[in-house]
Amino acid sequence: MTSVAVALFPRFTALDAIGPYEVLQRVPSIDVTFVGATRTPVRSENGFLGIEVDATFDEMPDPDVLVFPGGIGTRDLLTDGPTLDWVRGAHATSRFTTSVCTGSLVLGAAGLLDGLTATSHWAALDLLASFGAQPTDQRVVEHLDRRILTAAGVSSGIDMALRLVELLVDRTAAEAAQLWIEYDPQPPFDAGSPRRASDEVKARAAEYAAARA
Amino acid sequence: MTSVAVALFPRFTALDAIGPYEVLQRVPSIDVTFVGATRTPVRSENGFLGIEVDATFDEMPDPDVLVFPGGIGTRDLLTDGPTLDWVRGAHATSRFTTSVCTGSLVLGAAGLLDGLTATSHWAALDLLASFGAQPTDQRVVEHLDRRILTAAGVSSGIDMALRLVELLVDRTAAEAAQLWIEYDPQPPFDAGSPRRASDEVKARAAEYAAARA
């Protein structure tokens, strides 16, 4: 069995964690565990969603795969010794250490991205640079020699996890997972990248983020 | 404020619920609540994920929007009087009643889809027909006169929710949500539809489902 640890923390972004979970859990040779600092349920940014933590970092020191999701709560982790120690320790023996969205800031703070190209949510690419990484706007950035994959904002974790299944099992496994989750995306609009969203949409996005902050 | 109730139940499919949640929660005028029969955390199909139930069906009888996700656990709901009563009651006053994946079976069992075109997970379209609906393989099927939207399997709830935000607020709001979740999908493979997945992939998918069952 391949063990996957998905890290949780207060004010996480749910889809960052659940997108990869949903892909990975389709493969019977993969076990997914949601882990955190303590076995206390954690809430997403707005408090609308609570997820249970099923193991502590201490209880799962050496997963085969580490998935670190993002969210505004990552900011509190960037100087959090126990979390960064767990990331470094897990990475020492993991097959793959991965992040979605601003989860890459945590990998960076743990020193895993020094000198590497990496990605994050589009709004956090500048901040990522301050942790030694070279930000790119690719959707998924992989360094197989370093066993590190980083994905862009939120929904990109689905794309990253499909590639991860290919690496862990094979391409047929990844396509079978894609078929089960019927991942045949048909976005009704084309505003998912800051390169294509209009100025009006960017202004509204800024307004919404300020209102939710 | 617009109130959204996302229904939870044992053995739900997480991305069915979290995809729409993640889109909707980006809009500050929308409140999302996870509801269930009792205020007891529920587990996804494989038990890997526990989500907290923050309100009972009785406590939230008239949300503006109802989102019913799918999962193998829907089969137990198809004859569950209290759940079906809640769906019918909520639909009587909702602005929109929606489903993702096999959540449409529940809407069908509640009598909401009689004679309507509707969709579901590709593997459940035949079953959907037995509840009075006319199954189609469109990704999102909308009947605005009946205030009903159904989405196809799992990941399709993201596409559906973007359209829902357009209906609830406006197109700029939907595009702003798309931008924040960086929904610029780049699937590494093209196996997300049974029309395009190879026979080998379909065989592997069947094998995986049997192993997980």
What does this structure look like?
2 copies of one chain form a homodimer. By secondary structure, chain A is an alpha/beta fold. Chain A has 7 helices and 11 strands. Chain A has a 7-stranded mixed β-sheet, sandwiched between helices. In chain A, helix 4 links the parallel strand 8 and strand 9. In chain A, helix 1 runs parallel beside helix 5 and helix 5 packs antiparallel against helix 6. The longest helix of chain A is centred in the C-terminal third of the chain and has 14 residues. The radius of gyration of chain A is 16 Å and the shape is globular. The mean pLDDT of chain A is 97. The interface between A and B is large, with 76 and 76 residues.
